[in-house]
TrEMBL record:
Pfam families linked to this entry: tRNA-synt_1e
Protein name, UniProt field: CARS2 isoform 26
Keyword field contains Ligase: yes
Similarity-based family: Belongs to the class-I aminoacyl-tRNA synthetase family.
Amino acid sequence: HLHAKGKEEKMSKSLKNYITIKDFLKTFSPDVFRFFCLRSSYRSAIDYSDSAMLQAQQLLLGLGSFLEDARAYMKGQLACGSVREAMLWERLSSTKRAVKAALADDFDTPRVVDAILGLTHHGNGQLRASLKEPGGPRSPAVFGAIISYFEQFFETVGISLANQQLANSRAQNQR
């Protein structure tokens, strides 16, 4: 059930405390709503608020930004310091285990999101831009594996991380 944040009653037309899908889509994309839902347990009521939706949107945009940076790194278009490849492989492996365990534990999607955001944080930490001269050792394979895992997971749950949809969400929010 969807609740207006801070209210005990469910959203309903008779109480006039609801938002139509048409109005919602003027501000946020369907992917943002799906991500918002993933951040809550399916067994619990969800507190809806614009700030919660904005937070979901920002997290989703952050994931998209990480994927763009990782792709740029793989193409040699992003110079960064030395990448701790072994650490990222281990983080990817532990994230996969954590996601599988969370899904097996009563479909605990908030834990899944936390695990994915944790891997994103570590990946971003390795992609910090630097003034490094091009031509040093690079580790594109681990970023390719992370991208592949994220795309597969989010496709499975119906969320597109494609740049076009994220750009549309940005444009809609700026209106």
